[in-house]
Amino acid sequence: MALTAIVRAVSPAIIGCELSFVERTPIDFDLACRQHESYALALSRLGCRVLELPLQPVMPDSVFVEDVAVVVDEVAVMTRPGAASRRRESESVAEVLAQYRPLLLIEAPGTLEGGDVLRVGRTLYVGQSARTNAAGIEQLRQLLAPHGYSVVAVAMKDCLHLKSAVTLVADDTVLINPAWLDADAFASFRVIETAAGEEHAANTLRIGDGLVYPDCFPQTLARLRQAGIKVNTVDVSELQKAEGAVTCCCLVFEAR
Known about the structure:
Blueprint: E1 3-8, H1 29-45, E2 48-53, E3 69-71, E4 76-78, H2 90-97, E5 103-105, E6 117-120, E7 123-128, H3 134-144, E8 150-155, H4 162-165, E9 166-170, E10 173-176, E11 190-193, E12 205-207, E13 210-214, H5 218-226, E14 230-234, H6 237-240, E15 251-254
Parallel strand pairs: 1-2, 4-5, 7-8, 10-11, 13-14
Antiparallel strand pairs: 1-15, 3-4, 6-7, 9-10, 12-13
């Protein structure tokens, strides 16, 4: 089955994006657009069929499509973002996902953002963050249990989403910043830690046997390559100013 990647172009309103743990600095919109185009090209080169959603000119964070859905093999769960300003983003994503999966919904008072969900096989690790609450985690558990998935809540701090602090880089290996989460949840994995001074370096996107990875973390990049992991680097510096990275800019799933 082919991998499909849903993306959306950068909104010209991105300067008004939500920020939690990153200071607001000027974003070069034209450069952000070029970087996003290169990012989408990297996905295509790694074998994804890239579907681009319509631009949302008044939704600052709409480029970060991952946060509004969690897609597993059987269903897609439309989330309820913890940032209320982002809830309008889901409609156009749901229209596309409905062509591939039955849709389920997280409902109030639950909140859940896809950036807090790390899937490893039939287990979903979910960060307990400012954007994802206990009610949202429990709803996700109940929605996916009939399909054979388990949900593990992970305590975290000092970062926006779980995947800011940990991502899967091989079947048995995670890249992790242990200062930002309860690393005991990943004790059964081989662990690669981010390098000192590269606190934001744990976010990487796995496509097949390769990774899409920001080019601004050279020491952590070296650790990944020393571990025998194939890495494709991209420049996402302007999207990082909006507290984004490589996982949040796409929704990747197997089309059926």
